[in-house]
Specification:
Distance between the termini: 35 Å
Order of helices and strands: HHHHHHHHHH
Number of helices: 10
Number of strands: 0
Strand content: under 5%
Number of domains: 1
Largest sheet: none
Radius of gyration: 18 Å
Length: about 220
């Protein structure tokens, strides 16, 4: 039980930490603009984006700490930088421009690409930066630094993290697959309210990350 309970906690905590940052509902309008109204294209594209997102998060979790050590970057600095980026993203979502470059690019590509080309280009912009952007990567690296260093426990921790990431990717897949239906049900006003609510939540998460990183930085010997 001493090992099972922490594993279950990590399994649940990982999706709960990443999903508010990923916020797939806020990306749903861009996904619909890219995939169109074809259910087949939406399902294929959603599956590929989910797979891409799973790979990005797992690699960040497992190898992120080693990359930080290689460049001499401390975890508090990553928390501050990632928090600043998250706060800036949340603030931008609360005060959106009339046209966002990434969304315009996605809509333009949807008009000129075939279904096969849309699936091939699922990485940009849907996977990065809209789904697993710098904020998600920074958070995944921070979570990866909490993995045990003992070889056996490290392998077990990576296994739990992969399952937790799979759950996160599964939610992303379901959200994008049914994005058209969800947006139709919410309506224009409901979608706007939902996006503003998630933007404020993201802003608060970013400020909390910066505060935690600053406290850790000051407490360092």
């Amino acid at each position: 039980m001493e090992l099972v309970l922490p594993a279950l906690h990590a399994l649940v905590a990982l999706p709960l930490t990443l999903l508010p940052i990923i916020d797939p509902l806020s990306t749903a309008p861009v996904f619909v603009a890219t995939a169109g109204r074809s259910r087949d294209v939406a399902a294929r594209l959603a599956r590929q984006v989910a797979i891409n997102s799973w790979i990005v998060i797992v690699v960040s979790l497992v190898l992120g700490a080693q990359v930080l050590a290689l460049f001499g970057i401390s975890l508090p600095v990553v928390r501050i930088g990632g928090g600043l980026l998250l706060a800036a993203t949340g603030w931008q979502m609360l005060h959106p421009k009339d046209e966002d470059d990434v969304q315009v690019a996605a809509t333009h590509d949807a008009q000129v690409l075939s279904e096969t080309e849309i699936v091939r280009r699922s990485f940009f912009p849907l996977t990065f930066p809209l789904t697993t952007g710098p904020g998600v990567i920074a958070t995944s690296i921070a979570l990866g630094t909490e993995l045990p260093r003992t070889p056996m426990l490290f392998v077990a921790g990576v296994g739990v993290a992969m399952v937790g990431t799979a759950l996160t990717a599964w939610v992303v897949y379901l959200t994008f697959k049914h994005a058209s239906f969800l947006l139709d049900r919410l309506g224009e006003i409901g979608t706007l309210v939902m996006m503003r609510l998630f933007a404020f939540l993201l802003l608060c998460i970013g400020i909390q990350f910066m505060f935690t990183g600053w406290v850790e930085f000051k407490l360092r010997p």
